[in-house]
Amino acid sequence: MTRALVTGFVPFAGDTANPSGDAVRLLAASWSGPAALVTAILPVSFDGAAAALRSLIDEHRPDVVIATGLAGDRGGITPERIAVNLADARIPDNDGAQPIDAPSVPGAPAAFFATLPVKAIVADLRAAGVPASVSHSAGTFVCNHVMFHALHATTGVAGVRAGFVHVPWTTDHRADAVVSTADVARALALVLETTLRTPVDPPLVGGALS
Ligand code: PCA
């Protein structure tokens, strides 16, 4: 059976919630789709999150890795297209680490493209009424770092696809949010289902000026 690993994060930056972790917990409780699902909630720690993700990949050998995190200013669900080999933290992580201009993986390539079908994912989310767009920057904090590690660990490994999805604040926490945490959980199920049935991403319009 196909195996999928989906992760979210604990709260950070003084917040008391992180909708990515909450949505992944909801997904774990409701998933009945065509893959064995392993979920985990990662620490917002450059070292801790990368180590946890790599040991989950080593242990479970997933065919699909979908890491998720909060990008509070986004207007919808945003699959990330690219991870850069750069840790440049504006604030300390939950362990107090604040790398500046450091590589995520010394000696590794400058960047990796997501191996998830990001265009198909956006198309399917929009068809389901979920606001979504392709993002071309996962930032330079722990989320980008985890995405880079996921792709460094899996790129070129036959049959394994990986990537990252940023989610916005939800109506459970912000009055002006456009989705609920339950909506995000359903969206993550769609992301996984689309990935499982889309081996090659179709060339759909989805570029951006920034
Ligand atoms: N968002 C942060 C790290 C953890 C999270 O949920 C980020 O975008 O880097």
From TrEMBL:
Signal peptide: none
UniProt-listed InterPro entries: Peptidase_C15 (IPR000816), Peptidase_C15-like (IPR016125), Peptidase_C15-like_sf (IPR036440), PGP-I_bact-type (IPR029762), PGPEP1_Cys_AS (IPR033694), PGPEP1_Glu_AS (IPR033693)
Superkingdom per UniProt: Bacteria
PANTHER family: PROTEASE FAMILY C15 PYROGLUTAMYL-PEPTIDASE I-RELATED, PYROGLUTAMYL-PEPTIDASE I
Primary residence: cytoplasm
Main enzyme class: hydrolase
Entry keyword Protease: yes
EC number: 3.4.19.3
UniProtKB keywords: Cytoplasm, Hydrolase, Protease, Thiol protease
BP term (GO), one: proteolysis
Active site per the UniProt annotation: E80, C143
Assigned protein family: Belongs to the peptidase C15 family.
GO molecular function: pyroglutamyl-peptidase activity
Protein name per the record: Pyroglutamyl-peptidase I
Role: Removes 5-oxoproline from various penultimate amino acid residues except L-proline.
Catalytic reaction(s) noted: Release of an N-terminal pyroglutamyl group from a polypeptide, the second amino acid generally not being Pro
Subcellular location: Cytoplasm
GO cellular component: cytosol
Protein's UniProt keywords contain Cytoplasm: yes
